[in-house]
């Protein structure tokens, strides 16, 4: 079966931007790199999460997908469903390219009041709002090749019908005009679309998802502008009884450690205009591998975030086969105040914590300069969680290593006041000159006490420090599994507790 699949893949030819190209040879299968509780497609290419919506007990995850090769190509919306955010079942492809173009990123809403009229006989439609990207129009150079369109489902997301009136939001002549995130806004009593429009966000509103009126623009001169703005999201969160609005904006390139990353702004949205609270540059995740992430729709006050665990710098080259890319673990978002700043804190969703087997906890560990833990903690599975607590944060590094001399180092650098992930010696990296390296993000908490949660799943580590104030996600490809655990500290540190739990996931 596997061989047949690989042969089919290697014989296929594929189309990129309208041109037929010979298929790239498929590298040997790498089942050892398949994560368990992170979603991956069974085969072929995946990028951004799309259309995430919760409906009748099911989390729907659609995703940018090219089902004919392991590299980016004409985009479809793949589909997966889950009851618990960690065990995913891939479903048939939801949206295929059509005469209006490829199906780029977007969102999906539950149209409870049937404002769109797509529901028949009392049915409640799910409506997808996505970007059509038209390569033939692109060749004409009018810059009008991206526009917003609709599709709807009347069978809980199983099958989708494209709206015959597409596109619903034509392009006024803006080269990058894409990735609509739509939600119902109670202040406006309308749908509000948050759209990435080249170097800024443009907000639109609609009573019925079909007719859109421009409201305002935000960000031309604010935030990071090292690359194009993409995949925005806008949602409210409360802190101490007060509501704030969070605007996520992915940017590529121009991330804090190179390539793709997601910045955010905290402020107010009055149904028309977004006003940021401060101008401090903020990133939802400082690692290199969390991009184009947005939140699930229809989850009430709870905001659950999921990102694409890769970076456009090397996403097309990572050494996995016959699929490319995984999503991050789901994260619950909350606001936290530090001094006069309000930050977004990300923590692994409780559904991930439920995977944890009973923890093995070591108390009062003194590390200087090194403490080998391999005789106490056996890294027998590649899915596990480590939690560290200290009352007095000093230099500290968690080192995973193997008999081949490879090591992955995750730590805190006291002098720089930064958390970091160093994958320079963590395995395969020759596929891209920008992959290997030590990447860092600032410690935002000011307390001497610190807590760190690290999630591992074969080829990824997700670091949540200080209740999620600093988050970093990175991927790595060791030639053999990491089996040894060591702590290092140049300054010396005492950990009140270090706990290790296996995470039981479903391996495909
Ligand atoms: C972000 C992105 C989106 C676009 C999609 C195309 O990674 O560039 O802006 O809709 O990918 O696959």
From TrEMBL:
<dbReference type="InterPro" id="IPR018053">
    <property type="entry name" value="Glyco_hydro_32_AS"/>
</dbReference>
<dbReference type="InterPro" id="IPR013189">
    <property type="entry name" value="Glyco_hydro_32_C"/>
</dbReference>
<keyword id="KW-0326">Glycosidase</keyword>
<feature type="domain" description="Glycosyl hydrolase family 32 C-terminal">
    <location>
        <begin position="351"/>
        <end position="492"/>
    </location>
</feature>
<dbReference type="GO" id="GO:0005987">
    <property type="term" value="P:sucrose catabolic process"/>
</dbReference>
<keyword id="KW-0378">Hydrolase</keyword>
<dbReference type="Pfam" id="PF08244">
    <property type="entry name" value="Glyco_hydro_32C"/>
</dbReference>
<dbReference type="Pfam" id="PF00251">
    <property type="entry name" value="Glyco_hydro_32N"/>
</dbReference>
<dbReference type="InterPro" id="IPR013148">
    <property type="entry name" value="Glyco_hydro_32_N"/>
</dbReference>
<protein>
    <submittedName>
        <fullName>Glycoside hydrolase family 32 protein</fullName>
    </submittedName>
</protein>
<keyword id="KW-0732">Signal</keyword>
<feature type="signal peptide">
    <location>
        <begin position="1"/>
        <end position="18"/>
    </location>
</feature>
<dbReference type="GO" id="GO:0005737">
    <property type="term" value="C:cytoplasm"/>
</dbReference>
<dbReference type="InterPro" id="IPR023296">
    <property type="entry name" value="Glyco_hydro_beta-prop_sf"/>
</dbReference>
<dbReference type="InterPro" id="IPR013320">
    <property type="entry name" value="ConA-like_dom_sf"/>
</dbReference>
<feature type="domain" description="Glycosyl hydrolase family 32 N-terminal">
    <location>
        <begin position="38"/>
        <end position="343"/>
    </location>
</feature>
<dbReference type="GO" id="GO:0004575">
    <property type="term" value="F:sucrose alpha-glucosidase activity"/>
</dbReference>
<comment type="similarity">
    <text>Belongs to the glycosyl hydrolase 32 family.</text>
</comment>
<dbReference type="InterPro" id="IPR001362">
    <property type="entry name" value="Glyco_hydro_32"/>
</dbReference>
């Amino acid at each position: 079966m596997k061989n047949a699949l690989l042969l089919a893949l290697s014989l296929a030819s594929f189309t990129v931007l309208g041109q037929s190209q010979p298929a790239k040879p498929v590298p040997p299968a790498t089942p050892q790199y398949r994560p368990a509780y992170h979603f991956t497609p069974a085969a072929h290419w995946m990028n951004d999460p799309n259309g995430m919506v919760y409906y009748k007990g099911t989390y729907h995850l659609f995703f940018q997908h090219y089902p004919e090769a392991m590299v980016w190509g004409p985009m479809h919306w793949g589909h997966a469903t889950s009851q618990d955010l960690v065990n995913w079942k891939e479903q048939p492809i939801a949206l295929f390219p059509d005469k209006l173009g490829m199906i780029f990123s977007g969102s999906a809403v539950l149209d409870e009041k049937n404002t769109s009229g797509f529901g028949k006989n009392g049915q409640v439609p799910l409506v997808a709002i996505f970007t059509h990207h038209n390569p033939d129009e692109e060749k004409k150079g009018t810059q009008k090749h991206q526009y917003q369109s609709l599709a709807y489902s009347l069978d809980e997301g199983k099958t989708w019908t494209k709206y015959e009136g597409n596109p619903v939001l034509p392009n006024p002549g803006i080269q990058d005009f894409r990735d609509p995130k739509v939600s119902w806004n109670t202040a406006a009593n309308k749908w509000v679309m948050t759209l990435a429009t080249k170097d800024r966000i443009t907000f639109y509103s609609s009573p019925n998802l079909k007719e859109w009126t421009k409201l305002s623009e935000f960000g031309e001169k604010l935030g990071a502008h090292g690359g194009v703005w993409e995949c925005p999201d806008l949602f409210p969160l409360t802190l101490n009884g007060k509501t704030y609005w969070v605007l996520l904006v992915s940017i590529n390139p121009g991330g804090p450690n190179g390539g793709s990353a997601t910045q955010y702004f905290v402020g107010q949205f009055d149904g028309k205009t977004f006003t940021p609270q401060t101008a401090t540059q903020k990133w939802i995740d400082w690692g290199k591998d969390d991009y184009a992430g947005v939140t699930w729709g229809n989850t009430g006050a709870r905001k659950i975030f999921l990102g694409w665990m890769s970076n456009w710098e090397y996403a097309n080259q990572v050494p996995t086969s016959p699929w490319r890319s995984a999503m991050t673990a789901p994260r619950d978002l909350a606001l936290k105040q530090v001094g006069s700043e309000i930050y977004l804190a990300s923590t692994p969703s409780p559904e991930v914590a439920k995977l944890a087997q009973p923890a093995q906890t070591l108390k009062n560990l003194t590390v200087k300069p090194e403490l080998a833990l391999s005789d106490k903690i056996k890294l027998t599975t590649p899915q596990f969680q480590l939690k560290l607590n200290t009352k007095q944060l000093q230099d500290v590094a968690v080192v995973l290593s193997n008999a081949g001399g490879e090591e992955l180092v995750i730590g805190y650098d006291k002098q720089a006041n930064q958390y970091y992930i160093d994958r320079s010696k963590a395995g395969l990296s020759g596929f891209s000159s920008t992959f290997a390296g030590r990447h860092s993000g600032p410690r935002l908490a000011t307390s001497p006490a610190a807590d760190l949660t690290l999630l591992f799943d074969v080829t990824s580590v997700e670091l949540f420090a200080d209740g999620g104030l600093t988050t970093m996600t990175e991927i790595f490809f060791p030639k053999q599994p990491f089996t040894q655990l060591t702590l290092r500290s140049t300054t010396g540190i005492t950990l009140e507790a270090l706990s290790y739990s296996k995470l039981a996931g479903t391996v495909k």
